[in-house]
């Protein structure tokens, strides 16, 4: 299924997620999958010193693109409104614990 078909199936307002470093809370790339967002701070290309996972809401008509490559179900938008920010803690074995959630 292509990005346009997937876009057409989205609700008018959706929840999206962003895993990143605390220094880059603002960004255009979001995902429809919470688990995918939680993995991003661990990837070598995005390795986060201070990992966070953002939950946001966005109106469908503010989504610029839907990208389905790499299985990430990525959304491109500059209009996501933060609902919550979780601060992750690195463990000694290289995993992230997600213990705290703060209202945005």
Task: Provide keyphrases for this structure.
single chain, 104 residues, mainly beta, ADP-ribosylation fold, four-stranded antiparallel β-sheet, three-stranded antiparallel β-sheet, 2 helices, 12% helix
Report helical residue fraction.
Answer: 10-25%
**Total domain units:** 1
Low confidence ranges: none
Question: How much strand content do the residues show?
Answer: 35-45%
Q: What structural class is derived from the secondary structure elements?
A: mainly beta
Largest β sheet strand count, sense and barrel closure: 4 strands, antiparallel
Radius of gyration: 14 Å
Oligomer: single chain
What is the architecture at the second tier of CATH? Alpha-Beta Barrel
The level 1 CATH classification is Alpha Beta
> Strands across the major sheet, in which order?
1-3-6-7
Number of helices: 2
Mean pLDDT: 86
For the secondary structure, the number of strands is: 7
H/E element string? HEEHEEEEE
Morphology = globular
Give the N-to-C terminal Cα separation.
34 Å
CATH topology: ADP-ribosylation fold
How would you characterize the overall build of this protein?
It is a single chain. The chain has 104 residues and is mainly beta. It has one domain (3-103): ADP-ribosylation fold (Alpha-Beta Barrel), CATH 3.20.170. The chain contains 2 helices and 7 strands. It has helices at residues 3-9, 34-39, and strands spanning 13-21, 29-31, 51-59, 65-67, 74-76, 81-90, 96-103. A 4-stranded antiparallel sheet has the order 1-3-6-7. Strands 2-5-4 form a 3-stranded antiparallel sheet. The chain is globular, with a radius of gyration of 14 Å.
